[in-house]
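Re: weekly structure request thread

Next one in the queue (548 aa):
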Amino acid sequence: MQDELIAKAKAWLAEDPDPRTREELAGLLDAGDVPELRARFSGTLQFGTAGLRGELGAGPMRMNRSVVIRAAAGLAAYLRKHGASHGGDEAALVVIGYDARHMSADFARDTAAVVTGAGLRAAVLPRPLPTPVLAFAIRHLGAVAGVEVTASHNPPRDNGYKVYLGDGSQIVPPADAEIAAEIDAIASLDDVPRPESGWQTLDDSVLEAYLARTDAVLDADSPRTARTVYTAMHGVGRDVLLAAFARAGFPEPVLVAEQADPDPDFPTVAFPNPEEPGAMDLAFARARATDPDLVIANDPDADRCAVAVRDGADWRMLRGDEVGSLLAAHLVGRGATGTFAESIVSSSLLGRIAESAKLPYEETLTGFKWIARVDGLRYGYEEALGYCVDPQGVRDKDGITAALLITELASVLKERGRTLLDLLDDLAVEHGLHATDQLSVRVEDLSVISDAMRRLREQPPTGLAGLAITRAEDLTRGTDRLPPTDGLRYTLDGARVVVRPSGTEPKLKCYLEVVVPAADRAALPAARTRAAELLAALKRDLSAAAGL
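Done, posted below.
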């Protein structure tokens, strides 16, 4: 068994095109580090609906040039098998974007070389840019597919590979499995042509077209007075967001200087995710010093948007569900038509808002790969700070246009002497206080997640937080409106719980919601107290039921 492992590692080393990972792997072989070699060669990174994501390093269980070259070759083979033209001036186009993480530019160049070697055309964005620019560019340029090299808000040691098809939305089954099969069919990297040139590096015209499109999310005559503090979280959002805000005529955002420049090491945060504890501390300090109307943060690839507001004496982050509901109410107030959509783990308040406005409403599985495919989509959001406010331009979450729209809403309310919190109170009185929280467990051992899911299936709870479970659904079977997924959904009297393994991180995620009626604004403090008690009890009882 050990001899087979060593042989695998030596074969991988022999064709690794990257001197850095060759040196790393040779060192492991020389040291006879069998446990580490086993970790690297226990399988391969699985290509799924999130593409690829993993820790940088040598071997098939890590993100590296060898893995990316195989992924690009598999994608190119899939595209040709599905009718993408090749050769000559009529070759189909694949557009490639990348963020500022370690190895992102290398992976983008490798992808361009492989696509070109397969007889397709490749065009690479001019520099590290937000993921929404790549999603826009696919449709804008008439490409058959797009690739974004990013690990979004994962730790610094990670990178990833996100694949879109020609409609501008991320891949879903069965495309992911078909691409994975093409990747598996590649016997050797020597079989993958990789010319030194032949692809196009795009100029700024695509970015200019994206920025011109951002104007479409705002009302022509809306006020533009709200002042903001902004952090790019060491990512690629700053320049594009500042350009979009300048075009719109908003006051120039005050930058969190320590986090303004792209830095793949993310030195000021433990995790470069606005939702993580401590990630917004520097932004809040800047807000205390400058007293803006709101704080805005993007994650490192700027497809997510976080919003914070003054609440009493200090600042607090709004939950993704709160921002999602605020944007929905704003669009309804502007007379938006079309379907409102969200994932099943997001607040049911969006459905109430849509119903009240007599607008179509859809629930989807988790991820914008599903939300973006809803027929007639006008607005979609997910609780993890993702908002699609211009689906005709970007069929994905977009942290730049979401930032514009929430700042427009803050400006409208400011002109009336009101705030985002005032509007949230209005929604709570009209539709009930919808309070959400999350029980998220990060694990080193993935068996903890599978054990928890198995325990919940074998010994399902009959009640949580003193509330009876009125309906329990095992989503692996699918529903009349949802395809199968690894998840559990419990409907309670005045509450809802969804449990699922994360698709991108080693986490078990449990999404909790309670709905407490409030007759008027005076009843809201008591409703919030009751909601907090219920959410705490849901966390406690669900943890016990799952054996966490």
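The mean pLDDT is 94. The first helix runs from residue 2 to 15.
Next request, please.
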